[in-house]
Structures are given as C-alpha cells and as structure tokens.
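2024-03-11 09:14:02 INFO receiving multi-entity request
2024-03-11 09:14:02 INFO entity count = two
2024-03-11 09:14:03 INFO echoing inputs for audit
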Amino acid sequence: VTGTADSAELPVVAALRALSVFSADQAGAYREHFAAFAAALGEDVETKLGRFLRGWAREGAPGTVVLTGNAGTGKTAAAEAYCRALGVPLPDRDVLLEVSPGRRVLKDLSGLPDPAARADAVRDALASLSAAQTLVCANEGVLRDAFADLEAAGATAALEAALRRGATREGDLMVVNVNRQRPTSERLWNQLLDYVARGELWTGCADCPFDVGGCPMRSNAEQLRRPVVREQLRTLFRLGTGEAVPTLREVLAILSWAVVGTESCSHVKERYRDLGLAAFTASDGYFTRILGGGMSPDAAERSPLLAGVRRSGLGDVSDLQVDGWLRDTNGAPDEVRGIAGEPDPAMPATDGRRPGLAGTRSPLDRVKTKQHEMTFHALGEMVSTDEDPTRVEDGLDALVQGDGVANAPAQTLWRQRVYFEAVNDLGGPAAAARRLLYYRHITDLTELAGKAARGADTVIELNELVRGLNFLVTGFSSPSEGLIVPDPACLFARDPGSFRPARPSLVHSQVDIERLALWVPDQGLVRDLLDVDHVDVDLVVDGSSELALRIRPRMYEAIREAAEFRGPVGQGVAEMNDLRGFYGRLAAGLATEDSLRVADPDSNPPRTGQDHTSLLRWDGETLMAAKKKRQRLTPGAIAEELFCLDPDRDERAPQLCAETLLTLVQNGYRAPEGGTLTTPKRQRFAVRSLALGENFLGGRDDGRAGDDETTPAEYGASLAAGREVRGSAHLSLAHQTLQGLVDPDTQRASQPGAWLLRPFHESLLWYDARKPSPNSPQYSVRKVYMRGSGITLARMLADPADATAAALGRSAVDAIRSALTAQSPLADISTRLESVLPADAAYTRPPVLEDDEAAAWQRGADPRLAQLAGQLCRHAEGVMRQAGASPPSRLWQLRSILAVDLALHVVRTAWVATGAPATEQYLLLSFGGGPRAQNPVRQRSEDSYRRARNPTQRSNGPDPRASDERTRRKRPRRGLAFGIPDRKRTRQH
Amino acid sequence: MSELDENDRVVDWPSEFQTGSALGNTDDEESISNQLKRLPCPASAEHYLHIARAAVEAANYSRGAEDGFRVLLESVGALVGTGSYRYLTAGPDLLAALVGALSVQMPMPSREFFAAIRREWGFVVNQESAANTALASQVDGAGLERNARRAEKLMSEAGLALGLSDRTTMVGERAARVGS
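2024-03-11 09:21:47 INFO inference complete, emitting structure
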C-alpha cells in the first residue's frame, strides 16, 4: 500500500488489490487493515450513521445507542467516528470503556469472554441511560442472548422493533439495525465509487502506458468516474442487495476487483512492453469483472452480493439491435461506434484490410481471437464481410465461445459494455435494463419505491400489481375485482407461477383496491440515521404491517410478467413461498365470503356457485375381514419383530400421512376413551367422484340420491363428469378446482381408488378404495396402499407414553386439528355432496374396525417405538407450530416428516441390529454439482444409500461402483430386515 | 426360531414359513424347516445362528424393509436417480419440512442446521458433519463444503435461508416462532 504516484507502483493499485478479498476467513478484516488503506485511499467514506454519532458526541445528550448488524456493515467505523469526534482513539479492548468523561464505548460485545460478562456489560450500559453517553456495538445473536439473560423485556422489545423497522428509540435507549444501511443510497454510492476511482488516485505511475491505451486499470477507473456508468452499476447492485444483506466491505471488494483484478503496475508495464496493445483486452474490463469475470467460480460463489449481481444476466440476455451493432457498426450511433473501436474512415487499408487494432482507444474495446487481438469493430467486420472462411470461423468462435478459459465470448463482453456506456442509444436506463437484464422492470420498481417513499400517488401501479398477483394466484387476470384471496388449499395446489395450466380456484375473500397501499420498508427514524435506498415495496392490506407482502426485485418481476403476458413466470420457490405466506395470513385475518365464489381463469369475472342438498337414505351391508393363521418366520413377521413398525413397500408418504390424519380425524383428534378405536376407513364417495372424475358410486342402484329419480350410481356418474345435479350450479368449476388438488404422487397408481387429495381439510381425506374385480362397478374402502403404519403413527402423536413427548404430541395434534378444520368452502362442498347419499348404506356407513387396525393402534404404545414416538412428536410439533407457513404448507411438510422419520427409524434399527460401526451410520445428501463421474459427493451419496439399504455392506474404497458390483455377484442380498451380522462376509469388506 | 422352539415348542415348522416357500419344503431334507426339526434339544445359539444364516442365504428376507425404506424416501424427494445410481438429496419441500421440524430452534446459522439434521436424521451435508464418519477419509473436505454451499443456495432460493454478507447463512428466520 506504500508508494507515491511517480513511483513504479501506483499506491491505489496495491490498496485495491488488498481490498479485493473474497475468501471466507477475512470477515471484518477491512476495519483492522483500514489504517494501511487510508494512507493510499484517503479518508473513509462518511455514512449518515457516522455523522449522527459525531453530532451526538458533540451534543453530549445522555443515553445509550446500540448498533447491531453483521460483520462488515460499518458498526466499528461508526464507533471510530464517534471517538474521533471526542478526540480520542477507538479503544483496543473489547470492554465497556470510558473513553472520555461521561462517554463510554464497547466496540464489540462479542469480544467479551463469556455470556455472563456480556450480560454485565449490557446491564451496565442500560443502567446509566440518563447518566452517561454509551455506545455499544454488537451482532444480533449475542445481543439477543444478553438481553434474554438480563430478562430486559423493554430492551428486547426495542431490539425486535429495530430489527423490523431498522431503528427504534425507547426513552434514552436507541437501537439501530445497521443491516438496513444500503450502499446504493445515492450519496453513499458516489462516495464508494470515488473512494476507489477518483481522479486524484489515478494520476499514473512512472512510464504508465494509459495514454497510449495500454493500462486496463486506469481505463476502468476512468469509466467508473462517469455518472452514467455509476448509475447503471447502481442498478446492478440494487438487484444484488435485494438478494443479500450488503456490507460496505463486500461492495468495496467487488469494486476493487472490477478496477484492478490481480494486476499490478509493473505487470501491466511488462506485458505492454512485450505485447503492445495486444497485452490487455475487454476481458480485463470493469464491465465483466463487476460480474465476477476473471474470478474462479468458487471465489465468485462465496460472495452473496456478487452472486446477486450475476443473477442479473447481464451479458447473457440478447438484444437483436445490440448484437447487430457488433456485427456491423456502420449503422450504429456515434457513441456505439466509439466503444466498438471503429477507426477513422480516412485511415488507409492495406490489401483491402485495416489492422485489427486500428481505431482502438483502450483495452476495453479489444478482444482476443485466434487471428490476433482486434477491436470489436474489426471482429464484427471479419465475421460479417471477410471472404476467408477460416477467419470467419475464428471470428465466430471468439464471438460466441471465447477461449473457454480466461476470455469471455466477445458477444457477452460487448453487451456488457453497451449496457454501461451506451445507455442513451439503448433508450435510457429503464430501456437498457429491459433490453439487457433478466430483471426487465427493475427501474420501474425503484421508481415505484421512490414514489411510495415520497407519498406520491401510486394507484396505477397498484392496479398493475393487483392484476399480476391475481393472475399468479388464481390464473384470473383482472384488477377490477380487487385483490382476490384464494382459498389457501387452492393456492397451495396452484403452485403460482408454474407452467401448469391454472384451474379454477375457490375465492376466500376479495380486498378492494382502496384497502391496499404501497409502503417502503425503511420509514421513520431509520431514514434519519442510516443511508437507506428504496429498492423494495410492501403491499399492505388495511394498513396492517402483519398483512403485508414484501415485493423485492424478483417478486416484482414475477408480478409484472404475469400481468403483462398472462403466462408462467418461472420465478423461484422463495417468491412463491412468500406469496403463499401472504395469502395464508390474509385468509386467516380476513372474513370469508358469504357466498361461494370461484375464480375461473377462463371466465370474466369470477362466478358464484351454488350447492345442493338431499333427503334420501338407504341400507347396505358391512365389510368384514377374514382371519388367517399367523406365520412367524416369514420375512414380514421377522421384519415386524425387528422393526416393530415396518413400512410396507406400497406405503408412500401421501398414504402414510393420509392414514395418520384419517385416524386422528375419525377419533376426534385424541386417543379414544375406553380404547375403542374408530377405523380410519372413510369413503367420501360423492366428493371423491367429483374430485377424481371416477364414479365411486357405480353399481349402487338401490335407493335415491338428491331427488326421487336419481339413483346413487347416476348421482356418482354426474359428479364424475362434472355435470350439474339437482340444485347445483357451476359444479364443473368445483370439479376442476378439486382436480387441481390431487396429490400428484398418488397418481402414480393407475387405480383412481388410490388417488388422494393433498392434505388440506378433514372433509377431503379418504381411505383407499378398490373394486373387487375389474368388471365390478362397485367400489369399497380397503387396504391398497394404506397398510396400517399411519394408525401407529397417529397413536404415537395422540397418546405417547413419555410425558414430554405427550405434551408435544398434544400440541401437534391440536395444530393439526386447527389446520384440518379451518373454515373452507371446499368443506361445504364436500359435506353437501355427501349429505344427499343414504345415511346407512354400506358405502356411507363407517366400516367396522379390523383386528390388524386395532393391532396397529396398540403397536403405537410399544416401548420399542418410544424413541421414534419422541422424535415424531417433537418434529410434528415443530412443523405444525412454526411461523410463516400457511396451514396447507404445514400439513404438506408434515407429510414429508412422517415419512422421513419412519424411514430413519427403519435404517437406525437396522444399523443397531447389524452392528454397523458408528462411522458408517450416516446418509450423505448430495446437492447439485457436476456430472456423476466428476462428482465424488454424489458417488459417496449413492454408496451411503446402498449401505443404508444393506448395512452389512461396509463403506467402499475409491471406486464404490466396482466394489458394489463385485459384492452383488458374490453373495445374495441381505439387508435391513434380517439383522444377524455375517462375520465372514464382513471381513471381506 | 429359538423363541418358537424353546418357548412355544413349535413342531409344525413349515407352517411358520411363507406358504410355498422353499424354507418350509418338507420334501427337501436340507430345507430350513427340516434342519430345525433335527435340532438337538436344547440347541445352542450357534445352532440357531447357523440355520438363520442359511435361511437368509436361501430367501430374501430384506426386500420388504429395503423397499419400504426406498419408497418412503423416494416419495418425499430424498432419493433420486434409478437403479444402482440412486443417491440421496433434499429438494425444497423436504428442506422446508426439516427446517419446520426444527422451528423451535430457529433461526440458526447453516452450520448449526447441518449439525442438527445430522443429529436428528443422520443426514450429512458438510465437512463438519462428516468428521466422525468414514467419509472423512474418502471425500475431499472442499468437495463437501461445496456441497454445503449448494445446499445453502438451494435453501436461500427456496426462502428457507438468508445469505449474509459475512459469508454466513441464517436458516429458518421465517419458520422461527415469534418470541423465540
């Protein structure tokens, strides 16, 4: 970092190289090394927070200010500014220190040795609120713990409020969440760019080749001083900061990389001496480095902010005109021709060609090709007009492929440079974003946020948002009905933004546009204390912050795309989870519609449906189960003995969950008093016919359903076809709505009798059904894929032996009941459809409990399953009592947890029974990565799965596949079910 | 077998095996049921172990449980691929369920989350979780860390985690219970 401007090395170059840190172990290093940087880069950037603290120090008003935030957000810098205002240095030690009379500073609460010392320091700071001035810097976790240890409810409330709103003041206590500081706020952004690129830092070293177009670093710095480039860069960083909590240190690291990369002045001069103008090209340009160009994929992956910036797609998004400018600059505007390196037309040509570097002004307009380095202009000309096919081929390679190592495709570099430097020719910043980024509406969002922050009229934008949201969640695109809140079950099944065609959705309620407002998250005190930048907006219902949807760039993009194109938007799961959470809260907080309404994607506007009733009844027969002699040495019996609860291979997650829930539902969500269980077998043949399009009442010709002329079989046929029945209206919409709720995993079975709906409401749960023979029309409920494990799990949840598990289980079951019995129009439909069937028929009367069902219930109390029961209760309680997920989401998660816990019970039992070493007892989860052959984690994951299925197989060497094949050839399979270790074969491995 | 022989005094061994199974074939002198019939009384544990091994060699005792384990994992998206190339993973839905199941402890840094799912379900994702397993000597630690970063990215994209600029990822802020 040392040196002077006329030395061989420019001081700023070394300083920026040192700042450009992307490794994991450098968090917070910036502040510690700052003194060295200051010598080269000058005074630190001045934040609003620093200014406030300086003023507070000078003013001397008593109180305590707590700064909380992640490492690198600028807490220590702010504390340093405070101390500077008092004329004292920042303390070295992490203790609450009196730096001047009545002024105390604790620069890092985490630096104290233990929780007790932290609690003491915080107690001390809070005790003298009106007697002294105290500044405490702390990250959120330790601060929360310290407040909890002190049982300081007021301080904890202040912290919670600050984390939500950015800053809060409770009397003389102020808490500031520095994570809300945005580097892209206008003033701070320009300061940051000045910090690395201002002209006085870049006057040039001795023999600098910049003036002849040979120094990429000074060319980069020169561009970053231009306001238009800064504004474009700000848009990219705004996108990035929408994805992560941005820190000043990280912003500076990326900017430093963009300017210097790994270069030094001496290296630049050496290369220029050896290679001339060919030494550096656009691959060294800021416009590609700002997106991680020249960096290893691993390093780029480590920076969340950089990852966010890269997701902008700059360089990947094509634009016909921009790409056309590269191929033929003749028709391009003057500015574009300039950045393409077009030579003076008067320059003479040799053999009809000009030199490839004729017209170059800096490394930023040069690209590398197999035909030597040349300007963008020369490359375009070579590709478009050259008669030598080899030259054309080489040009095309450079254009679309680059060299696959250090040089990006010229086309990508060109688009990136045009985005930054030809903004006016693209039609302005908004058009540039629309044409060259994946986030086509980012500037609209920042403008909207600005308007909302100023309190300006946003009615037009609000209508557009409502149009997009309505399309996303119901497939119905119109703002005229207000914000349509679908039934949470329909929304969960809808998978908003997916490529599935939208089905009709039941409407829970509608919110008039007048009840909606757009807010910005950073309001009030936080705007006075921190440099904020309005990038997000909150869509708020009835002025309640609880009923708000945070609209970030990706969400905004999805909404606008949906409004404009009325097609799938393919946005991420996070945004769709946000939507589900928002609508779930609305459904819970708003009154439901009195009438039954359906949002039909094919109609305009949503229609109102009717229902129907019946008075008919009839009789039927009972179902009985035959008893067989129990064979005790069959694989099933052995497995039952070993595992106690042994899942059948037909029991998949949907069936397991449905059987568990059905057992709970049928028994009033508790263990039956007196021990008489009610069977989980539930028919629901009427609603099932409507939902699955199959007549489950076929062959039921006795009695009447709904009126004096319709038999149950005819009634079922009408429902299956979605035709109206007596007193109904728009039944086909309900038919389509329910079809959208079918759990796709159950449709793997070809028999409709085994299809289930997703777990949403108790009225829509039913048991497996099948016909006695393919030719028989009559369905009856019986075991197909539900095999009794769900009954055992239900017992474990409702009635575990252990007291702790019982409390958790009760809580989980109560939450399950709340979720399954929440008010829903679907429940009304189901109840009314079923009510028209004869009450005492075989297909409506509850079947008799079978012995194996009773045995499955008893098994739930087996001491061998106590560990599973404890785990299951804890996990189910966690899932069902979590915040931020709608009831259908929780039930969907419960479906997964029941299956995973049961699967793990099996494998753990097998590990114990086979004496698998502790080092072998794991399941390796593999995420992404390259092709299998180059992905050792995936190969080991395959290995861990194979060993879980067959614990007697030991972990293999470097080639698991070869070893596994050998194992299969040499011996018969032996695995989970039979747990006697085979010593002889174990030795082989 | 030992329990049936000594406690229940079983005589009709073929009826204890699956109907039609070779293990209970009375015509075959070496069938398991005939071996059990010939056992001395009282027989040693070694005798039963020998016959049990022979039974397992001759019949597939593990298939039911193996398949039960497989389909449960498959149906929650934890097992993908086909045949011998099946491997374990977790999609957004399953990760959401794991986060939800641990909601009482949320939010937590990703390192702690990976340690928690190792403890609760035996799932290994990162280098730290692999420390006391055979993986420690089989897979490059950097590979496991890349695996963990991809898991973090997936969770961030699924709204289950938030990547912070100090290189940490906080998991489960949304699932965390109010006041916890």
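2024-03-11 09:21:48 INFO post-check: The CA atoms of residues 33 and 86 of chain B lie 37 Å apart.
2024-03-11 09:21:48 INFO post-check: Chain B has a mean pLDDT of 83.
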